[in-house]
Amino acid sequence: MSDFSTKTIAATRADGLGGRLLAMVNAKALADRMGCRFGFTWNGQSIEQMEFHKVERVDTVFSGDFVEKHWLGEAIDSSAGFGALNGSFSRGSLEADARRTGLRGWICNDFNILKSWRQGWLKARLPANRPAALRHQAFGGFGFSPAVKAAIAAASERRFSQPTAALHLRSGDIVYGTYRWRLEFGDKVIPAPLARQIVAKLASKGLATLLIGQDRAMLDYLKSETGALLTEGFGSNEFPDETHKAFFEMTLMARCRQIYAGSSIFATIASVMGNVPVFRPKALFSQRRTANIILEELRSRETDYHPLEAAFGYQRAFCMLEGRISPARAREILERALALDPENRAYALKIVASHFRERDYAVGDAMLKALISREFEAAGKVPTEIMRLLTSRSWRGLVMADDFDLYLAAGKAGYVYAAACAAQIQAALGRKEAALAMAALSLRADPGNKLFQENALAIRSGAKSDDAQATDPSTRS
Questions:
Q1: Looking at the predicted structure, is the pLDDT value of residue 98 above 90?
Q2: 355-477 architecture in CATH?
């Protein structure tokens, strides 16, 4: 029999400040309610490698007492005896789990984990037991360093002259970094070309707008165009340290009536701090209207925005309208985005897919040939970067799975570069025979083509590797 109170519910995320704090809030909320210990890791090495996130060392964010009591180190070793909180659970199910020998506790990194906690129908209906209230209470129990406390206190003393809503314009890695190539995390960001109309809409509701974001030039531009408030006007420049400034700005957001943001964790933490609601743009405009606002803004003011901000605006408009507009209209939007962000292979792949959707296989295949051949000539490797992007995965699944049938149809129709891509798609789907057949199709059409030779070799090698792993007793559970 194990003493349940000695078990630890731990947050171990190593991403940006918001992600770490939200995981910690969830873990502490559960630990407090279940009578367990709360713990967290804080990896300093990963912080130094982050291009778009600013996070200080653990001892500069949290107080010495808090670190001593709850910090579990840089990371938790896989053999340390921690399980993962997966699926629905209750205190009873965790108590049963805890009876296993050597179990120290559970890792709690899922942002939505509180929705999986089964606390009984009646308890769950009590206001104090709802996720927002649990998170707010847990955050209040964090022990912050004197510098962080000072930033929070300074923001808490500021006063708005009228009812105010916060608008968080995240950019960072999703607009300027490699995530812009994935087309899957765009919902975290409200595109800058949408901000003007959001400010106007909030003004019609009697609310001033406080802008928070990472792009200083963009915020200055929007302030000059809309009259929105900036955190500088409330003293954010008094905090040169980016982490302390982040806490100051989150606290200002927390004091607003409402927060408007994408699925930004930074905005979620502000909501947790102040127990105020967060709304998505759909609370103000329909999805089609949102896309059209962005396109209208860019049609008249595209050059006012950084090229990557404008390209991201086109990207979001396309993603909102995809499947509702003609392939030709989709290409118009994507070609504008590609002109502004020519390194973005995702736009090229979507343009190819739009040609395939119209069964204009020759044009799409010619475009694929130019893209893939250029990459192969530069690196001499298969799969090329654009093939890797086409078959890339995230925790949500295969990123471009909705276009797979279009590439497969073009390959089956005998278009050789589409067939080479189709071979990679079939391999990603685990269809070894179909992958080999597609690779063979392009190679038969052009036996001397080095790219097709390497593609067929890569597919065969992958298939052999899978077969060897399947027959190796050491890989069996």
A1: no
A2: Alpha Horseshoe (1.25)
Three-state SS for 24-41 is: HHHHHHHHHHHCCEEEEC
Report residue 338 as tokens.
């590609």
Q: Considering all CA atoms of the chain, what is the largest pairwise distance in Å, rounded to the nearest integer?
A: 74
Radius of gyration of the chain, Cα coordinates, nearest whole angstrom: 26
Assess whether pLDDT exceeds 80 at residue 154. yes
Q: For 401-457, how does the pLDDT look when each residue is reduced to its tens digit (9 = 90+)?
A: 999 999 999 999 999 999 999 999 999 999 999 999 999 999 999 999 999 999 999
> Considering the entire predicted model, what is its pTM?
0.90
Task: Spell out the residues 6+ positions from residue 453 whose beta carbon is closer than 8 angstroms to its own.
Answer: 443
Give me the pLDDT at residue 470, please. Answer: 45
State how far the alpha carbon of 241 is from the alpha carbons of 23, 54, 251, 433, in Å.
Answer: 23, 9, 16, 56
Q: Are 419 and 441 in contact (CB under 8 A)?
A: yes
Least confident among 80-84, 230-234, 264-268, 363-367: 80-84
Residue (of 243, 250, 252, 245) closest to 270 by Cα position: 250
| pLDDT tens readout for residues 308-323 | 999 999 999 999 999 9
Domain spanning 147-283 has what CATH number? 3.40.50.11350
The 8-class DSSP code of residue 72 comes to -
E runs forming strands in 316-472:
393-394, 397-398
User: Torsion angle, CA of 143/146/148/152, rounded to 10 degrees?
Assistant: 90
CA distance 217 to 309: 11
Q: What is d(CA 288, CA 318) in angstroms, rounded to the nearest whole number?
A: 10
What are 217's two structure tokens? Answer: 């030039």
Structure tokens that stand for 64 in this block: 């010495």
Q: Quote the percentage of the chain above a pLDDT of 90.
A: 79
Q: 72: closest CA among 35, 113, 31?
A: 31
Count CA within 13 A, CB hemisphere, residue 297: 25
Angstrom distance (rounded) from CA 354 to CA 330: 7
- Determine which helix (DSSP H) or strand (DSSP E) holds 363, and give its type and residue range: helix 361-379
Whole-number pLDDT of residue 463: 67
If phi > 0 it is left, if psi is from -120 to 50 it is alpha, else beta; for residue 53 that is: beta
Alpha carbon of residue 195 to chain centroid: 20
Cα–Cα dist 65/74, whole Å: 17
C-alpha span between 429 and 431 (Å, rounded)? 6
The residue extents of the domains of the chain are: 4-139, 147-283, 355-477
